[in-house]
Amino acid sequence: MPEVSQSRVIRFGQFELDAQAGELRKNGVRLRLQQQPFQVLAELLANAGRIVTREELQRKLWPADTFVDFDVGLNTAIRKIRQTLDDDADRPRYIETVAKRGYRFIAPVSPVNGSTPIIAAASSVPLSTDTTAAIEPASPPPRSHFRWLAVALIGAVVGAGGTLAIWKYISRSPELRERRLTANSGEAALKAAAISPDGKLLAYADATGMYLRHADTGEIRSLPLPAGFDLGSVSWFPDNSHLAITGVAVPGAKPSLWQMSSMNGGLKWLIDGGQSAVVSPDGTAIAFVMDDAEKKDSRRREIWIMQSAGTDARRIVQAAGDDWFGPIVWSPDGQYVAYLRVREGPGYSAQSSIETVAVADGHPRVLLSSSLMREGLSWSPDGRILYSTAKEEAPNAEDSVIWSVVVDPVSGKAKSEPVRIARQAGWISKLSITADGKRLAVLRNNTLPQVFVAEYEAGTRRLKVPRRLTLDDSVNCPFAWTPDSKAVFFLSTRNGMQSIFKQAINQPTAELFAGGRDQHFGPRLSPDGSEIFYLVASGTDSNSPVMAMRMPVGGGPSRLLFKEPGIVDLQCARAPSRLCLALAIRSGETFYYPFDPATGRGKEFHAPLADGWGLSPDGSQIAFVEFNGKEDRIRLFSPPTNEWRDVPVNGWSGFKSLDWSPDGKTMIVAASKSRDTSALLEIDTEGNARELLEGQIEWAIPSPDGRYLAVNELVGTNNVWLLENF
Which letter, b or e, does each residue of 170-209 get, where b requires 16 or more Cβ atoms within 10 Å of its Cβ? Predict the structure, then answer.
């Protein structure tokens, strides 16, 4: 073994690799790892973030005369490394297998303070006899945390044969810097934010107005908005003096696109209907999304571009089926736009893809696709698309990861593997980057749905102040009650996967009711109250089979009710009725399946896809929340007579959920009051409305005895963080 005078210690998670000592330690305790696996792990750490091919590993770590046994040796080494790190090949935390290519170390790595930038791969086993290969630097991924410069050094003679020890120098790129720019409370959560091209100003809006914050000094000044203006998105022009903003000018109106002065807040109207607008790098054009005029709902299904003066507007992409579009970004040369296409699946799942389209030809190209994709998207001046995904592993599945991928400027296709940039707490919903690519503003949404219990006052039927039931920071959404009204069934991601829990309203903790490796959702009480019906989906595609299951309310073995593709929800009437309905969405069409728990399925029927729906307790009618292209409305449908009836609700719009009261005389409906605030209403079948609560309310489920509401309300904050050296 050659004498080692300098060392390099690399830390990842709970582990440290000490190249000089030839040790791998966990929390300071030395682990047993044989020489060959140790060398493979050191090589993967040296190239953290990029694929190390099997050929590279063979050339660098296996003697030329042992190539026949290389495959077996490498596979064994990887297996032993994973056993030591407690890693899983199917759901890797450290070492990812890239099929038919090699391996990639995916966890963040960092040097231990005080260690010098040298790591030795010295061994009594020959690593290579090719001294020319040892002096060629490896090609790193863009902005990788580590760059390796291989240098051949004089080795030592060991035993009867000579060994050349290959040393690799490692130089550290500047560490990722991260600092908070805003610190708003939940009552003033940020709606939109963007960093200026020169990196000096952050433009952002919250419930109190619109502001400019100096990124370095912290100075804040307000920009006036018209009274009642509800801002939706903001993007800077390259002159740093103007902004493109979208929003609703007056309650009930359609979104519009405006140009705004960053000096005095002066507004110039550009076009109606524009949302999520983004200005091209040269400032001559604006890309934005529009609702599909032929659809009756308010999903963003078209991408348009126009001149920055508001002229020559034209559509370049239209969504198919029930797909819709998320954020849009421009390429650095303005020849392409990239966007997020979202295709919803069962159980609140979605398969999303990042696509690019040439402005000139309008032919989309798929860049990446994942069920973990989130709404953060940006295109840096150096040709990388930055995007965000969910963390796949439990228990922090609500957190995000920021990635980068290099895009070919000619074809608009990916020309590199994704590289991880940073992990972030919360849901990343917006990325904006400066003109020089040195600063990245990240809007982190740490708002999560939680379960609250509200009790009606005796006599007045007013609601008391709601009390939070779920006390953990995971997604928690109520769906049903036990028949005695003493416990709530809700969905939660606290175990990583979407599972069903039950919690008594007088207890601080919940018990797992149904869960596993697949997504569980839609728990509903059976007509006789003895069972809970729920759905299980193993895929994210709308055509994937979904199992409708049944389980006793008190727990026990589950049984299959039926299996159908695309089921997203089910509801049941109350005894003596035996009617239940399942809602399925397949290939853009909506189906309702009546079924009787004892006799099976009935004949399906079609109805419009609604933002909310509810089967009345006696099973005689279905209430729908719909948008007809002009306004929201509540409609009642009678399956026996096939008749429809509108329920006009004066003074309210933006309905987004609906559930029937136990007596069937009223409906509990959530309606938007502003972009960030909702009202919980009680509406009778004639349209008379009474406000019960105000907040960030999504829906509420009445208890069977009519005494309580299980309220689904958003809790948390939205704020901006600034990243540098990414």
Answer: beeeeebeeeebbebeeeebbbbbbbbbebbbbbbbbeee
The 3-class secondary structure across 350-405, one letter per residue, is: EEEEEEEEECCCCCEEEEEEECCEEEEEEECCCCEEEEEEECCCCCCCCCEEEEEE
Dist. CA 49–CA 636, nearest whole Å: 55
User: In the prediction, which pLDDT does 294 show?
Assistant: 54
- How would residue 219 be classed by pLDDT, with cut points 50, 70 and 90? very high
387-392's contacts with Cβ under 8 Å and 24+ in sequence apart are: 387/354, 387/431, 388/424, 388/428, 388/431, 391/423, 392/91
What is the reported pLDDT for 166?
24
Q: Which domains are assigned to the chain?
A: 9-172 (1.10.10.10), 190-319 (2.120.10.30), 323-446 (2.120.10.30), 448-715 (2.120.10.30)
> How many residues are there in the chain?
726
Which of the four pLDDT bands, split at 50, 70 and 90, describes residue 87? confident
Output DSSP code: residue 577: -
Question: What local confidence, expressed as pLDDT, does residue 113 receive?
Answer: 55
CA-nearest of 146, 163, 158 to 48 is 146
**3-state secondary structure (DSSP) of residue 630:** coil
Q: Which two three-digit tokens encode residue 152?
A: 């051949």
CB atoms within 10 A of CB 221: 10
- CA 573 – CA 616 distance, rounded (Å): 6
Give me the pLDDT at residue 292, please.
67
Cα separation, 700 vs 466, whole angstroms: 11
Structure tokens at 313: 């507007």
Strand pairing class (632-638; 622-627)? antiparallel
